[in-house]
Each structure stands twice: as C-alpha cells, then as structure tokens.
Write a structure and sequence with these properties.
The radius of gyration is 22 Å and the shape is elongated. It folds into two domains: about 180 residues, 3-Layer(aba) Sandwich (Rossmann fold); about 110 residues, 3-Layer(aba) Sandwich (Rossmann fold). It is an alpha/beta fold. α1 runs parallel beside α9. The protein is about 40% helix and about 20% strand. Belongs to the phosphofructokinase type A (PFKA) family. ATP-dependent PFK group I subfamily. Prokaryotic clade 'B1' sub-subfamily. Pfam families: PFK. Its main location: cytoplasm.
Length: about 325
C-alpha cells in the first residue's frame, strides 16, 4: 500500500477536519501518501483529487466544517457511477479509501467494498445514529451548542413565565435531544424512539406551575415533528403562553470540543493502522472507550444504532 484517499460526505460535523488531519498525518508518518478528495462522492467521480501536504493540515484541528467540502450526490447509488469512482481511484494510484460521514456516506463505502475496493468508514455525524459505535464525531459539539442555546432560552422562559418548545436536530435519532435536554433541565424530552403523550406533558407543565414553577422547557427531536406543530398540539391542553423555536443548522458548525477532536484523532489514526495491517471493509467505532472495528457490510445491513432511552426515564424522574 502506497496511497490512501480521504473524503468527507453528507452533512458536515465539527471534528471532521481533525479526522482528516489524523488520517493524512498517520499515513505520512508511515511513509504513505495521502490524497484528499473534494466534494465527497461527486468529487470522487469527477476526479477532484489532490495529493495532500503536511503544511495543509496545520491549524485545521480546531476548525468546524470540512476542508474537503461536501456535496449531495444521489447518483452514487447507481453501480455504473460507483465504478466510475473506482476508476478515478485507480487512476490516481489510490489503494484504499477512508470515508468520513454519516449513514449515507457509509452506504457509499459499503457499495465500494462490495465491488472489491478497500474502504473504511469513520463515523462523522452530529446525529450519533451510526451502528457499531457509542459516539460519532461531531455529536459532542452539537450537544454543547444545543445545551448552551437551551440554557439561554431557559433564562427567557423564566423571565416571562413562558413555555418554550425547542426542536433540535438528529434526523431519526433522539440522542441530541436526550443529552442536551437532560443537561438543560428540560421538563420533557420527546424522541422518536419512545412513545409520548402530549396531554400528559401538558398536565405535567400545569402541575409544575401549581407547585410554583411558572415556566417550562420541552425539547423535541426533529424526527418526531416540528416545534411549531408540537406547540400547537400542546396549546390544546392548557394556557401556556408558549413559543416554538427551531435551533437548526447552528448545531452543525463551530469549533469542535476537545472530546470531538480527540475522538476524531483516535478514529483517523486507527483507520490507517488497520489499513497498514492489511485490513479493510470496516467501520470504525468506539465502545466503552475502546476503539473497535466491525465489518462494514454486517454493521450496516444487520445492525441499527440503539439510543439509550433510559436517559429519558432519568429525565422523567428529575423534571418536576
């Protein structure tokens, strides 16, 4: 093995640059060449590929987003397009590809693996919805951003005796809602993985008010419904002077937390070490703070991310 390709795909997440840096520098440290691929799978097929130099990696560990950019490219679902991508990799003499991204990005790596090209997936998504790992790159930063926003909203809720319904990102997973909601002392957290009763939440807010708490905070994962829709349903069961807020893409960007920088560095270095050992077709992850690598085909086709719904039970016991 002489050359490793690196691409980022799908939604950006803080810490992706730290992973790019780790993969490239670990490869260079082992005497290999690292090639960056701009604009994800689209850039791969178009041959937007360049040799990375060490100085290009200076000062990126603390930068949000991705220096390799990203682009939606649904055409990569077609085998003919995938084969064009492999042709480009061979044209540049690239022996293996490391893909940093979420579910869609992983499926691209899965397709390449099935076609015989050695690909490794590194989990980079704020949603934390990738099977085979406890945490993904960018999740911790997104939770920090969401928690800070919820803390600010709580101040206003307290000052004006209002109930705020706040929608956070996460696609079909409720992890951001759970972690930020607990950290902010939310009265209720609503996630796709757990049944909910809007009337019961309204009754809880009413009971809290009767016991002296004249404001409220409800955190809703985007996979459930919009904040506005939830607010309108909630208002049917009480007079809450409620407001709906959607945090949106602010959760994706910004300076990555130290935890995300270290996690990304560990993932990137581990991916290269596995490739040097002749291993591929893998999905990188972390379990009980130990790095793990699972077969990417088995991981995606036979497993699903498991949200820790016991955290919602914990919040129910604490929020009154």
């Amino acid at each position: 093995m002489k050359r490793i390709g690196i691409l980022t795909s799908g939604g950006d997440s803080s810490g992706m640059n730290a992973a790019v840096r780790a993969i490239a520098r670990s490869a260079m440290n082992a005497g290999l060449e690292a090639y960056g691929i701009n604009y994800g799978y689209k850039g791969l097929v178009e041959g937007n590929i360049f040799k990375m130099e060490s100085h290009q990696l200076d000062g990126i560990i603390d930068r949000g987003g991705t220096i390799l950019y990203s682009a939606r490219f649904p055409e990569f679902a077609e085998q003919e397009t995938q084969l064009k991508g492999i042709e480009q990799l061979k044209k540049f003499g690239i022996d293996a590809l490391v893909v940093i991204g979420g579910d869609g990005s992983y499926h691209g790596a899965l397709k390449l693996t099935k076609l015989g090209f050695n690909s490794i997936g590194v989990p980079g998504t704020i949603d934390n919805d990738i099977p085979g790992t406890d945490f993904t790159i960018g999740f911790d930063t997104a939770v920090n951003v969401a928690t800070e926003a919820l803390d600010r909203i709580n101040d206003t809720a307290t000052s004006h005796q209002r109930v705020f319904v706040v929608e956070v990102m996460g696609r079909g997973a409720g992890d951001i809602a759970l972690w930020s909601g607990i950290a902010a002392g939310a009265d209720a957290i609503v996630i796709p993985e757990r049944d909910y009763d809007i009337k019961a939440i309204a009754d809880k807010l009413t009971a809290n008010r009767e016991h002296g708490k004249d404001h409220g905070l409800v955190v809703v994962a985007e996979g459930v419904m919009s904040a506005q829709d939830f607010k309108e349903k909630l208002d049917q069961y009480g007079e809450f002077d409620s407001r709906a807020i959607t945090l949106g893409h602010v959760q994706r960007g910004g300076v990555p937390t130290p935890k995300d920088r270290v996690l990304a560095s560990r993932f990137g270095d581990y991916a290269v070490r596995l490739l040097l050992e002749g291993k591929g077709g893998l999905a990188i992850g972390i379990h009980d703070n130990q790095l793990v690598a699972t077969d990417i085909i088995d991981t995606l086709e036979n497993h699903k991310h498991q949200t820790d719904v016991s955290l919602a039970d914990l919040n129910d016991r604490l929020s009154f």
